[in-house]
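Bug #2210: token dump truncated for Capsule biosynthesis protein CapG?
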Amino acid sequence: MNDVDIVLPWVNGQEKDWNEKKNRYLANANELQLKCAVDSRYRVGVNLKLWFRSIEKCMPWVNKIFIVTDGQIPDFLNLNNPKIKVVFHEDFIPAQYLPTFNSNTIEMNVFRIKELSENFILFNDDIFPLKYIRKEYFFKNELVCDEALERIVAPKIREKMVNCFEYCKINNMAVINKHFNKRSVQKKNFFKWYNLKYGKRVLRNICMSYFYDFDNFSNRHLANSFKKKTFKEIWEKEYEILDTASKNKFRNYSDVSQYLAQAWQICGGEFYPRKTLGQSFLISDTNYKKIINQIKIKRYPIICLNDSMEIKNYEEVMCEISQSIESIFPNKSSFEL
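Reproduced locally. Full output below:
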């Protein structure tokens, strides 16, 4: 199998200069963008060095890690490690989209990173593997491994924070239904859609087989496998939509996300069925102790620790969570100075 790289977008939202730049552009933002650009979107959570420890321990087969930043470099990072490459936004994102504070813009353009391998895994800095994960969990015979599971769109109105992904879901699926006929897609790859590896969740596909169009897919907020060619193809066929979305400095109504590329790969049949392992948590003051217990016993092979504005004692909570991860990965990695 060819090399598999990791792409990790990262920002230190507490840095003064970066914050001042963000606030200058927020002055021209609309109401939705203001609500989406909350502090929890950019603040540093679990110590980043623990993320590198978990990758080195649980995914040692990774070829190279591309850490994508807006001119920032973590102070602990060992830049002499040949498996590390720091990439600034201006190194790969077209100038007309910069500066950007929109993770969707960053993720939909990462395929432009010159040295990035054709096969790559897109991470976030709040996603941690806790157990060894085989390369074949992500790629098999040069195809991504994923699960083709449908679900309905169920938008919510939130009082304190707008979930901008609700708009992304609609935009993503509008593009998918333009290019893929659901009946033809599922007939051509029947056993990839109705696969026993999905367990009881395959019932979703059975229940939704009545509908002629795709409503939505199961988007697990975990590490996702991608081919560079997928993004290239979408940009070639839907340049105007992606160009408009990439001009959004902050998350906005016209955004599309990495889940468009994920769905594109699935609908194209270019994937191997697998059961997605792991769990995504939305941290709060009431549940973080339970999350810590799950981490310590390594209940899941990979987890996502979603930040939340609901956390009142933020520093205390994140410190305890960091300590629980450090108890699993106490040894300094080769990525640290």
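Output looks complete on our side. The chain has a mean pLDDT of 92. Marking as cannot-reproduce; reopen if the truncation happens again.
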